[in-house]
Write a structure and sequence with these properties.
With about 400 residues, this protein is α+β, with helices and mostly antiparallel strands. It has 18 helices and 7 strands. A hairpin with a 2-residue loop joins strand 2 (about 30-35) and strand 3. The chain is elongated and about 90 Å long.
Length: about 400
């Protein structure tokens, strides 16, 4: 019997809308993809005890083509030994429930699995959120029994407290935990997939940013006079020039920076994007042309930290500056969270560069804003680089002039 008829591309592109009706795509040996309005389901037809039966193998994309084929092979092996795979599946489910295979148990396993893949701080925040919002409602329940309605009820309670972003984050984490459970054969589906579009939109939050050239000049003068740690001083001076996201800046490594070619290439793994997209290599590297002023700062810092891999090493050896270092330094200079934050340098640059007449696309490319088209995103890694280099030098010159002509900040 011919098997492995389908391809990953065929499975991914198949949809109810494409066919306009329910459709079954065969992969051979009894297995097929059942395409319905509610989703895509792996099924397997087989005969046991003289009767035709159907075995559910999982839901795509939680269960990939490769995993579905493995489950088909396991089921056929059971049939060959005289066992009904549906009955085996029922017994395994009952055994899991007896072993207290609860949502919390599986979630804690997932957190351990992610250790080393995600930053320790990310793991810590994820656990705290699960302990606060998910475990009280879902933690004690068998993971196979939790329905979409129960997850939505949990998320609605978070929304009712005005924590819309937290609700979205919890939904994301629950989904990741269920995808792990499905892959492990401990759950059939991810209940969060049925909740798409049901949560309220996260209200837009604008980060505090200075957009007045007079105020910016005062801030630049204050940064120049700041007397903190060398790495912090350098990061503060570069933040307005390069307008990278704080995480992209503070985690810089010397291998990314070519002082000879005046170029810094931030790898895609450190750019904004989902972990899944990063693992698949779909987040492109980001090229940052370095102005003469930025080069001078980096060359000076290289004499202090150039012997190690981190550019901005903190007072704790081997570690980058913390997430809040820039904000704490700004506050110490008199610019609190309502006036200016580290992420605000991006809004500052965007506003003033647009006012100066630079092409919007050139500005957007340098800000590394997400491209809808992944092919375009990969191309844009180096798109209009000559213009971007000219803009970055002109911007650095502009900042230098602002600093020189501004009034010193009051003490």
């Amino acid at each position: 019997m011919a098997t492995d008829k389908l391809t990953d591309r065929q499975v991914k592109s198949a949809s109810f809308e494409k066919y306009g009706k329910r459709k079954k795509l065969s992969d051979g040996a009894g297995m097929y993809l059942d395409i319905q309005p509610s989703g895509k389901y792996w099924r397997m037809k087989y005969r046991f005890g003289g009767k035709e039966k159907t075995l559910a193998l999982g839901v795509y994309p939680d269960v990939s083509l490769k995993l579905a084929r493995q489950r088909r092979a396991d089921a056929r092996a059971q049939i060959a030994k005289g066992a009904d795979p549906n009955e085996t599946k029922k017994r395994e489910k009952a055994n899991r429930q007896e072993k207290n295979d609860t949502f919390k148990v599986v979630a804690e396993e997932w957190l351990k699995l992610k250790k080393g893949e995600l930053a320790d701080s990310t793991i810590k925040v994820a656990r705290k959120r699960l302990e606060t919002w998910a475990y009280p409602k879902l933690g004690h329940l068998p993971i196979v029994d939790i329905k979409p309605a129960k997850v939505l009820e949990t998320l609605r309670e978070i929304e009712d407290q005005g924590k819309h972003e937290t609700a979205h984050r919890i939904r994301q984490r629950i989904g990741e935990i269920y995808r792990y459970a499905v892959a492990e054969g401990r759950a059939e589906t991810d209940p969060t997939s049925a909740l798409k579009g049901l949560l309220k939109t996260v209200p837009t939050r604008h980060r505090a940013a200075i957009t007045s050239k007079e105020e910016l000049g005062t801030l630049l003068k204050a940064i120049d006079a700041y007397g903190g740690h060398a790495s912090t001083r350098a990061a503060l001076k570069l933040a307005p020039m390069l307008f990278l996201r704080p995480g992209e800046l503070r985690n810089a490594e010397w291998t990314e920076i070519d002082l000879e070619s005046s170029t810094w290439v931030v790898p895609g793994r450190r750019m904004k994007g989902t972990q899944q997209a990063k693992r698949a290599g779909r987040v492109p590297d980001h090229i940052v042309p370095l102005s003469e002023q930025a080069l001078a700062i980096l060359k000076e810092l290289q004499t202090l930290t150039g012997h190690q891999h981190l550019v901005f090493e903190s007072v704790r050896a081997g570690r980058p500056l913390s997430e809040n270092t820039i904000n704490v330094a700004l506050k110490a200079m008199g610019f609190d969270g309502t006036t200016m934050v580290g992420h605000g340098f991006r809004a500052t640059a965007s506003t003033l560069l647009h006012e100066q007449g630079w092409q919007p696309q050139v500005i957007e490319l340098q800000l590394a804003h997400k491209q809808r088209d992944q092919v375009a995103a990969a191309y844009n890694r180096s798109a209009r680089l000559k213009e971007r280099r000219q803009m970055m030098q002109a911007w650095a010159d502009y900042l230098y002039k602002l600093k020189k002509t501004s009034t010193p900040p009051s003490s």
